[in-house]
Backbone:
C-alpha cells in the first residue's frame, strides 16, 4: 500500500491487484455448477416462460399419485390403483419429455452462448462440467420419480386404518422404490445429456432425445411382433422405455404380467430374464457416459 | 402464391441437417417392412401394415415428428435467429408470407411421408389384396394428416418460441397417452383423424383395422382445424411487431 501511495501521480500504474481472498477450488466450482444447473433445470432464475414446461411436466407426473391420495381420502378400501413398480409406466412419456426439454437447456445454452470458455478457464475440469450436468439432471428427475412414489406411499398408507402399522409392514418396499427411482433417473439423464450435448440447437437436441425414445419404442414393439418371442425379445433392448420397465420389475422382484392389456405384456412376450434389462441399463449408462466424456474432452470451448 | 418465399423456404428446409436426419429416419419403416417380409410371421400382412407399420410407426410417430421438425423450422427458426425481420419488413401482406411457407411445409412433409407409406407398405404387403386397399387408405390419410399437422405446428411456431417442445407434448402426451385413457378426447387428436380417414378410404373389414372416429367427423374436424390454425397463424403474424422477439 505504501508503495502505491509513493507512486501517486504515475498514471501508468493501473493498480492491478491480485486476488487475495480464499480460493474455493475445484470442488466448490463443481458444487456451484451443479446447484446452478439444478436451478436452471426448473427455470428458476429465468423468466416465467422457462418455468412452464418443467413445472408443468413435474405436476403432471404427480397426478396419478395424487389421485391415489384422493381416493385414500374418499374410499379407503380401494388400495391397489397404482403400484410402486408400475408407476413409471404411467409417467414414462412425461419423464422423457422432461429430459428432452431440460437437457438442451443444461448443456446447449452454454454451447450456444459460448460460455464453455469461461467455465474451462477456471479450476473446473472438463470432466467436472459433464459430471455436474449429469448429476443435476438426475437430481432434477427425482422430483418426477421419487416424489410421486413418496406421495403414492402416503396415499396407500392413508388408505389403511393403521398408518404406523402400514409403514412398519411395508418399509421393505422403500429400498426397491429408491433403488429403481435412482437408477431410472440416472439412466434417463445420461441418455438425454449424451444426445443433447452433441448440438447447440435446442430444437435438434429436444427432437433427438424424444425421437430416440419414441422411435426405439415403436421399433422394439414391431420387431417383437414380427420376429416373435425368441429373437424378437432382444429387440426390446433397443428401447429405453422397455429397459427401464425391465429393470424396475427386476428390482421389485416382480414377474411381467401375462395379461394382454397389461403394460408389461411386451416383456412377458419377450421372455428375457429380467436381470438382462438391468445389465442392458448399465451398458447404456456406460456408453452414454463415455459419449459425454468424449464430447467434452473434444469440444472446442 | 409468392414463389420467391416458397423457394426460399424450401432451400432453407432442404439445406438443413434436420431434413437429412428425417430422411434417415424414414428408412426405418422401410427396413422394418423388409424384416417383416424376410421372416415369416404368423400375423396377416394387411393387419400388420394397418395397425403396426403404418398406424403406429408412420402415423403415430414419424408423421407428427416430421411435421413438427419442418413446421417449426420454416418460420419459428427464422424468428428465433432474427432473420424473420428481413422477411417481415418487406411490403407484403403477412398472409402472403405465411401461406407459401405453410404450403411448402405441408408439401415437404407430405412428400416424405407418402414415399415412406407407399414403399414400406408395398414391401410388407407383397401383392396381397387387402394390403393394396390399406396402403391406398393410408396414403390419402397421411396426405391429409400432413396438411393438418403442418398448419397446427406453424401456428404454434408463430405463437411461442417453445413451439418444438409444446408440439412434442401435444403429440406424445395428448395423442399417445390422454386419448388412450379418456376416449372422449379422441375428437381432438389429429392422429385419430388420420386413422379414421385411412379406415374410411381403405374400406377393409374391422378385423384388419378400425378407426375410432367416424370418417365424416374426422374429415370435418381436419378441415376446421386446418382453416382455424391457418387463420390464427396469419392473424398472429399480422400483429407481430418487428423487434418484439427478433
Residues:
Amino acid at each position: 500500500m505504501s508503495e502505491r501511495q509513493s507512486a501517486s501521480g504515475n498514471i501508468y500504474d493501473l493498480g492491478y491487484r491480485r486476488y487475495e481472498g480464499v480460493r474455493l477450488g475445484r470442488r466448490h466450482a463443481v458444487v456451484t455448477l451443479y446447484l446452478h444447473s439444478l436451478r436452471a433445470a426448473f427455470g428458476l432464475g429465468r423468466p416465467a416462460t422457462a418455468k412452464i414446461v418443467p413445472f408443468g411436466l413435474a405436476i403432471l407426473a404427480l397426478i396419478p399419485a395424487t389421485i391415489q391420495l384422493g381416493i385414500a381420502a374418499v374410499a379407503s378400501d380401494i388400495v391397489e390403483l397404482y403400484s410402486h413398480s408400475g408407476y413409471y409406466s404411467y409417467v414414462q412419456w412425461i419423464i422423457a419429455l422432461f429430459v428432452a426439454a431440460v437437457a438442451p437447456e443444461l448443456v446447449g445454452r452454454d454451447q450456444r452462448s459460448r460460455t464453455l470458455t469461461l467455465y474451462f478457464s477456471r479450476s473446473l475440469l472438463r470432466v467436472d462440467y459433464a459430471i455436474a450436468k449429469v448429476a443435476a439432471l438426475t437430481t432434477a428427475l427425482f422430483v418426477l420419480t421419487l416424489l410421486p412414489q413418496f406421495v403414492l406411499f402416503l396415499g396407500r398408507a392413508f388408505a389403511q386404518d393403521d398408518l404406523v402399522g402400514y409403514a412398519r409392514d411395508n418399509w421393505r418396499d422403500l429400498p426397491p422404490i429408491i433403488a429403481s427411482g435412482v437408477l431410472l433417473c440416472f439412466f434417463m439423464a445420461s441418455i438425454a445429456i449424451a444426445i443433447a450435448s452433441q448440438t447447440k440447437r435446442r430444437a435438434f437436441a429436444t427432437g433427438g432425445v424424444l425421437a430416440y425414445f419414441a422411435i426405439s419404442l415403436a421399433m422394439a414393439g414391431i420387431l417383437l411382433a414380427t420376429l416373435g418371442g425368441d429373437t424378437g425379445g432382444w429387440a426390446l433392448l433397443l428401447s429405453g422405455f422397455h429397459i427401464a420397465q425391465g429393470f424396475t420389475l427386476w428390482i421389485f422382484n416382480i414377474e411381467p404380467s401375462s395379461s394382454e392389456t397389461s403394460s408389461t405384456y411386451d416383456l412377458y412376450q419377450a421372455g428375457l430374464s429380467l436381470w438382462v434389462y438391468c445389465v442392458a441399463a448399465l451398458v447404456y449408462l456406460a456408453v452414454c457416459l463415455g459419449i459425454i466424456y468424449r464430447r467434452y474432452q473434444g469440444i472446442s470451448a | 402464391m409468392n414463389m420467391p418465399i416458397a423457394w426460399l423456404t424450401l432451400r432453407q428446409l432442404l439445406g438443413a441437417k434436420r431434413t437429412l436426419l428425417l430422411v434417415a429416419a424414414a428408412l426405418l419403416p422401410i427396413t422394418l417392412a423388409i424384416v417383416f417380409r424376410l421372416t415369416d410371421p404368423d400375423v396377416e400382412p394387411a393387419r400388420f401394415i394397418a395397425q403396426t407399420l403404418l398406424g403406429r410407426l408412420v402415423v403415430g410417430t414419424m408423421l407428427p415428428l416430421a411435421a413438427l421438425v419442418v413446421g417449426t423450422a420454416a418460420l419459428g427458426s427464422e424468428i428465433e435467429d432474427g432473420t424473420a425481420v428481413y422477411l417481415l419488413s418487406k411490403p407484403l401482406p403477412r398472409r402472403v408470407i405465411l401461406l407459401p411457407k405453410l404450403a411448402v411445409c405441408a408439401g415437404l412433409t407430405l412428400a416424405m411421408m407418402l414415399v415412406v407409406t407407399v414403399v414400406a407398405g408395398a414391401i410388407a404387403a407383397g401383392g396381397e389384396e387387402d394390403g393394396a386397399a390399406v396402403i391406398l387408405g393410408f396414403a390419402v390419410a397421411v396426405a391429409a394428416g400432413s396438411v393438418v399437422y403442418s398448419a397446427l405446428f406453424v401456428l404454434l411456431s408463430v405463437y411461442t418460441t417453445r413451439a418444438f417442445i409444446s408440439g412434442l407434448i401435444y403429440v406424445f402426451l395428448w395423442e399417445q397417452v390422454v386419448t388412450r385413457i379418456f376416449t372422449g378426447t379422441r375428437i381432438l387428436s389429429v392422429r385419430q383423424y388420420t386413422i379414421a380417414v385411412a379406415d374410411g378410404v381403405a374400406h377393409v373389414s374391422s378385423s384388419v383395422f378400425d378407426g375410432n372416429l367416424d370418417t365424416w367427423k374426422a374429415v370435418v374436424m381436419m378441415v376446421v382445424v386446418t382453416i382455424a390454425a391457418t387463420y390464427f397463424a396469419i392473424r398472429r403474424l399480422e400483429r407481430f411487431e418487428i423487434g418484439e422477439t427478433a
